[in-house]
Amino acid sequence: MKKASMISIAAYAPSQILTNFDLEKMVETTDEWIVKRTGIHERRIAKGESTSDLGMKAAALAIERSGLQKNEIDAIICATISPDYFCMPSTACVIADKLGLNFGITAFDINAACTGFIYLLELAKSLIESGAKKHVLIIGTEKLSSIVDWSDRATCILFGDGAGAAVIAARDDNEIIDIHTASDGSKGDLLITAAPGSVNPLSQKIIDEKLGFMQMAGREVFKIAVPTLSNDVVEILAKNKISPEQVDLFIPHQANLRIIEAVKARLEFSDEQCVLTIGKYGNTSSASIPMAINDAYESGRLKNGSLMLLDAFGGGFTWGSALLKFGGKSVN
């Protein structure tokens, strides 16, 4: 039976940079305060580009790098919490149209917040290994600047815009080894965009109370995220009888440097194993992991056959981890 393999990776970051010094002019904060607590120095902001525009640009490059023709893609799945439209059409359908794949292709969105890309991998793996699809394009894309309250320093310092995409295909080697996903909906109110929706339909009150923006209880999320992620990556490594030393690249969701460092220390990963992009992109939610994978790829750190360990934690709550070997061509 053919295995599912990631045969390409790509990303797109908007050109406009918003630094911590820029934020000092917008809210009561400092560069030193932001860096100390998050590790973020700057983030990208999309001007005149939608979430689907970002995703389409990453997707087009992922298809090109895969060596496939775009009409060989038979499914597009998009993870986003900042879709082009409230409920329809899906951002995946919009991206399919922008790629010229607007007839006969499966296209849909999922929402697993910052764990979105790992959920996408699990879906793509299932579709490939069941024989339902041959080439699945997965995209994590976010324009978080559109759902951030720029007067709220607790959230506006954290988030940025960007997209990452990968092609998952049926291959004989360099497979996606294992994926674990989980959730706990009882804590959903700790990281939430409360409106509009059936609980809080659109109204003037929703606008006045800014319920359409992301709201986060940062300390509570941090306390839960660190042990949850640490335990999850320990379990997936043990289940597959893989030691931390065998992992070529540890690529976590880029939410907060302190969370990453805590998990890294638990597993005793070296600096050479860990991929960090939070300093230049901030938290891009579902786009975070594929953007980090792409950074490792373009810098020559990720090569054909490299073993990656991915992990993420996000709103919902959702979390997950993945072990996979890269099946694409090396840059060098």
Automatic annotation (TrEMBL):
Residues 108-185 form the Beta-ketoacyl-[acyl-carrier-protein] synthase III N-terminal domain. Its EC number is 2.3.1.180. Coiled coil: none annotated. It catalyses: malonyl-[ACP] + acetyl-CoA + H(+) = 3-oxobutanoyl-[ACP] + CO2 + CoA. CDD domains: KAS_III (cd00830). The active site is at 114, 253, 283. It is found in: Cytoplasm. Pathway: Lipid metabolism; fatty acid biosynthesis. Keywords: Acyltransferase, Cytoplasm, Fatty acid biosynthesis, Fatty acid metabolism, Lipid biosynthesis, Lipid metabolism, Multifunctional enzyme, Transferase. GO terms for cellular component: cytoplasm. Pfam families: ACP_syn_III, ACP_syn_III_C. One of its GO terms (molecular function) is 3-oxoacyl-[acyl-carrier-protein] synthase activity. GO terms for biological process: fatty acid biosynthetic process; secondary metabolite biosynthetic process. Residues 254-258 are annotated as: ACP-binding. It comes from the Bacteria. The keyword Ubl conjugation does not apply. Residues 237-325 form the Beta-ketoacyl-[acyl-carrier-protein] synthase III C-terminal domain. Belongs to the thiolase-like superfamily. FabH family. Homodimer. The last Arg residue of the ACP-binding site is essential for the weak association between ACP/AcpP and FabH. Catalyzes the condensation reaction of fatty acid synthesis by the addition to an acyl acceptor of two carbons from malonyl-ACP. Catalyzes the first condensation reaction which initiates fatty acid synthesis and may therefore play a role in governing the total rate of fatty acid production. Possesses both acetoacetyl-ACP synthase and acetyl transacylase activities. Its substrate specificity determines the biosynthesis of branched-chain and/or straight-chain of fatty acids. This is Beta-ketoacyl-[acyl-carrier-protein] synthase III. The lineage of its organism: Bacteria, Pseudomonadati, Campylobacterota, Epsilonproteobacteria, Campylobacterales. The gene is fabH.
